[in-house]
């Protein structure tokens, strides 16, 4: 692996700093919105399944548009796609402000909220592939690991601050003011992406249909054992192991507290992830990377099992923070693998496939959590998810030996693949 002079190299690129700032504001807004919507809908319905439907309402549109969004990100200017995606997010959030303030009938308000969440899912379906590809356009290959660490650090910092801010604001001010703050943050993100100077230049491909272009992206993903193994493990770990959707119930019925505690619980995993991401900017994992990846995902599953058994809020906060440390390492490994192994002309389509199976797995995982809690009960559903995560790690370790034996330093020396 080439020596990286210092941990600030990626930050010296002005367009990368603007993208980081834009992503910071988007994540803050989405996290604050998540606290407000989760608490408001649970207060209206007292139904775990309704909490799960929040994630499903966002995931289905993102999945439906995902492959086409990846095709577009590999054909058009990624900066413009990201910009218009954030503009759509801001408009959706503004509509949520108006609806929350003016509509009093519970059924109508709930229906409108789910419709707005669906629009948000469509916008994020385009946002993810365009930003992933844009980072690859801006950052030199030798700095992909450094850029991944900074991306993770900034994302996790905003994921820490967002739920805390949302929980603190919601209690005294209510949902409308909370959504208004999210709208303002998204407008700040619009400004950041507007001033990014990088314009994506794509290799021209004659007479290639949309379907052929999409098929090429799918073939690339499913032909790489390492990429597919990393995606599959993350998909099933997130799908079964997450507890985010159930935190309002734990807060209200297990810990007997309010939105401020919910904000702390939502933020705790990101506190841990910030710690691991900050360390990785200084000491990236170059050797035994695959084995470490397997162990940290297994550790994440164990944390979820212990969380499900806990009745003490402080012990639960610690477990969530520890799960974030482990997940932060997993995110860094996967992000760096994806950037290094994906050629520039394929980044949008790869990110779309990844978002469909991984990004949306967070929302689908929330739905799974809601359904499991509805039919199994709160604690058994969490224990089931943690055990399934451990099973996924064991199966992947046996079935994908190339991933288990991966050495990150070797990827930096592989020949970079360029469009034909």
Describe it.
The protein has 420 residues and is mainly alpha-helical. It has one domain: Growth Hormone, Chain: A, CATH 1.20.1250.20. 81% of the residues lie in helices and 0% in strands. It is built from 16 helices and no strands. α2 packs parallel to α4. The longest helix is centred in the first third of the chain and has 33 residues.
CATH topology: Growth Hormone, Chain: A
Please estimate the helix content: over 70%
Number of helical elements: 16
H/E series, N to C?
A: HHHHHHHHHHHHHHHH
Mean pLDDT metric: 79
The CATH fourth-level homologous superfamily: MFS general substrate transporter like domains
CATH top-level class: Mainly Alpha
Instruction: Tell me which oligomeric state these chains represent.
Output: single chain
* Count of discrete structural domains: 1
CATH architecture: Up-down Bundle
* Low-pLDDT runs: 1-5, 415-420
Determine the N-to-C terminus distance: 26 Å
Counting DSSP E segments of at least 2 residues, the number of strands comes to: 0
The profile of the biggest β sheet is: none
Characteristics of this structure?
420 residues, disordered N terminus, single chain, 0% strand, Growth Hormone, Chain: A, 81% helix, mainly alpha, 16 helices
């Amino acid at each position: 692996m080439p020596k990286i002079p210092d941990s600030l190299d990626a930050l010296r690129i002005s367009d990368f700093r603007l993208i980081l700032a834009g992503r910071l504001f988007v994540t803050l807004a989405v996290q604050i919105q998540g606290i407000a919507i989760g608490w408001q809908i649970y207060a209206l319905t007292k139904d775990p399944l309704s909490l799960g439907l929040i994630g499903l309402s966002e995931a289905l549109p993102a999945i439906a548009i995902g492959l086409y969004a990846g095709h577009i990100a590999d054909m058009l200017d990624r900066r413009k796609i990201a910009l218009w995606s954030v503009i759509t997010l801001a408009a959706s959030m503004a509509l949520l402000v108006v609806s929350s303030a003016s509509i009093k009938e519970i059924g109508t308000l709930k229906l409108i909220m789910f419709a707005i969440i669906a629009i948000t899912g469509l916008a994020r379906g385009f946002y993810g592939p365009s930003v992933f590809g844009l980072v690859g356009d801006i950052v030199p290959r030798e700095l992909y690991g450094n850029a991944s660490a900074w991306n993770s650090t900034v994302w996790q910092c905003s994921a820490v601050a967002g739920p805390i801010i949302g929980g603190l604001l919601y209690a005294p001010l209510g949902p409308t003011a909370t959504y208004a703050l999210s709208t303002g943050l998204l407008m700040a993100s619009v400004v950041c992406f507007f001033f990014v100077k990088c314009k994506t230049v794509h290799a021209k491909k004659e007479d290639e249909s949309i379907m052929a272009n999409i098929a090429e992206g799918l073939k690339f993903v499913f032909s790489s054992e390492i990429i597919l193994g990393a995606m599959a493990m993350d998909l099933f770990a997130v799908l079964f192991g997450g507890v985010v959707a159930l935190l309002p119930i734990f807060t209200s019925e297990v810990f007997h507290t309010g939105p401020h505690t919910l904000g702390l619980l939502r933020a705790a995993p990101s506190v841990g992830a910030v710690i691991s991401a900050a360390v990785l900017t200084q000491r990236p994992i170059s050797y035994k990377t695959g084995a470490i990846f397997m162990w940290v995902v297994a550790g994440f599953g164990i944390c979820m099992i212990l969380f499900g058994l806990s009745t003490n809020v402080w012990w639960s906060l610690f477990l969530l923070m520890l799960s974030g440390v482990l997940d932060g390492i997993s995110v860094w490994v996967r992000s760096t693998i994806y950037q290094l192994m994906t050629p520039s002309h394929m980044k949008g389509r790869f990110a779309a496939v990844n978002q469909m199976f991984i990004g949306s797995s967070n929302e689908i995982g929330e739905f799974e959590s809601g359904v499991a809690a509805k039919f199994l009960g709160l604690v058994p559903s969490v224990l089931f998810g943690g055990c399934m995560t451990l099973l996924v790690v064991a199966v992947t370790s046996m079935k994908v030996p190339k991933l288990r034996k991966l050495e990150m330093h070797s990827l930096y020396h592989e020949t970079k693949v360029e469009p034909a």
